[in-house]
Write a structure and sequence with these properties.
Blueprint lengths: L1 E7 L7 H14 L4 E6 L3 H6 L2 E4 L35 H11 L4 E6 L1 H12 L4 E5 L15 H22 L2 E6 L6 H9 L4 E3 L7 H13 L5 E6 L5 H4 L3 H8 L7 H13 L3 E4 L12 H20 L4 E6 L2 E6 H4 L11 H8 L7
Parallel strand pairs: 1-2, 1-4, 4-5, 5-10, 6-8, 6-9, 7-8
Antiparallel strand pairs: 2-3, 10-11
The structure holds 6-O-phosphono-beta-D-fructofuranose.
6-O-phosphono-beta-D-fructofuranose binds next to loops.
Length: 357
């Protein structure tokens, strides 16, 4: 008999259900005697013993559904060692609930923060297998995370829609793309959507270069310009500040986000009409795209295989077009970022896309 616990933690994304279904299908189809428990709302469920038993019926019809049927929450890693408001030791509580249910392993689906906690639980002696989810694609140890391709589709759709209206009005449009401190989503959606300027956190921008590009386009007869701007984009000047100085500066920040700051500066310096569109959480919503359904199913089934073999302490990831197992200690606490000299950036530049650098 195998007893398996499962939880989804952090910001949701598409294909979480598809990945859990992949794990469950593999395990239920193996013929192994199994009990599966789902912890509700991420680590919170594991801390407070909020769970329910899962049966094959729970995984039926979920392949195409966005979100997570277990619910999710953010449980910041920084606070995981701090007792809760009632003095409860969260790590101890998670261990107790694991042992009470006599679990053989936990399947944890999440992004960066989630992986730090998963690795902590591993070092505390729990058996853990993880799966890489996030629209940001910023998880170390895997070339791709599920949710990413679906989000690229949505952000690209947003840029596509903006294109037609930008062309009609001859305006400058900024589409602000999610991705936290990493630019994969903006880079890919920007190229797919034919953006003229792509700004990502890994390549700090100079506002003068952005304006030069817009004016060049204007001179050449293109009356509109589309910018795909990562929510974490940063100017060259700000990138030079220390963490402390930057924090201090942001205390008096008057814009809702970086896109509005860039828009104001372009407008002020050129007099062009600038508009900002923020697709926001739509990028995390809706059905997973077919790529993500396949991808998450593949990773899920491989995670199921590891569990059946009793191989724990791994994230199931994707490297060089192969599904691979990556030791959790290699993943936790590391951010995967776009290399400014990567071939995709160079190729985008060959297409005439400006990165404002
Ligand atoms: O990590 C996924 C993500 O959507 C980021 O792209 C974004 O910065 C963040 O989560 C938003 O978090 P929340 O849903 O907590 O506002």
């Amino acid at each position: 008999m195998k007893r398996i616990g499962m939880l989804t933690s952090g910001g949701d994304c598409q294909a979480l259900n598809a990945a859990m279904r992949g794990v469950a299908k593999c395990i239920f189809h193996s013929g192994e005697d199994v009990e599966m428990y789902g912890f509700l709302e991420g680590y919170r469920g594991l801390i407070y013993g909020n769970f329910r038993m899962l049966t094959p019926a729970d995984f039926s019809g979920v392949l195409t559904k966005g979100g997570t049927f277990l619910g999710s929450s953010r449980t910041p890693f920084k606070q995981i060692r701090e007792p809760d408001e009632n003095g409860l030791d969260k790590v101890e509580a998670m261990k107790q609930n694991y042992y009470k249910l006599r679990l053989d392993c936990l399947v944890i689906l999440g992004g960066n923060g989630t992986h730090k906690t998963a690795n902590l639980l591993r070092t505390e002696g729990l058996n853990v297998v993880t799966l890489p989810k996030t629209i940001d694609n910023d998880l170390w140890g895997t070339d791709m995370t599920f949710g990413f391709q679906s989000a690229v589709n949505i952000a690209t759709d947003a840029i596509d829609c903006i294109h037609t209206t930008a062309a009609s009005h001859g305006r400058v449009f900024i589409v602000e793309v999610m991705g936290h401190k990493v630019g994969y989503l903006t880079l890919n959606a920007g190229i797919a959507g034919g953006a003229d300027i792509i700004l990502i956190p890994e390549i700090p921008y100079d506002i003068k270069k952005i304006i030069t590009k817009i004016e060049e386009r204007n001179k050449n007869g293109s009356k509109f310009t589309i910018l795909a701007v990562a929510e974490g984009a940063i100017s060259k000047a700000d990138a030079k500040l220390s963490k402390k100085e930057y924090k201090e500066k942001m205390k008096n920040y008057k814009y809702p986000s970086v896109s509005y700051e860039i828009a104001a500066k372009i407008q002020e310096k050129t007099g062009y009409d600038v508009r900002v569109t923020v697709p926001g959480h739509t990028q995390r919503g809706g059905s997973p795209c077919p790529y993500d359904r396949v991808f998450a199913s593949r990773l899920g089934s491989e995670a199921g295989k590891l569990i059946l073999k009793g191989e724990y302490g791994f994230m199931v990831g994707y490297k060089n077009r192969e599904v691979v197992k990556v030791p959790l200690e290699e993943v936790a606490g590391k951010l995967k970022m776009v290399a400014p000299d990567s071939s995709i950036v160079k190729e985008a530049k060959l297409l005439g896309i400006s990165f404002g650098d």
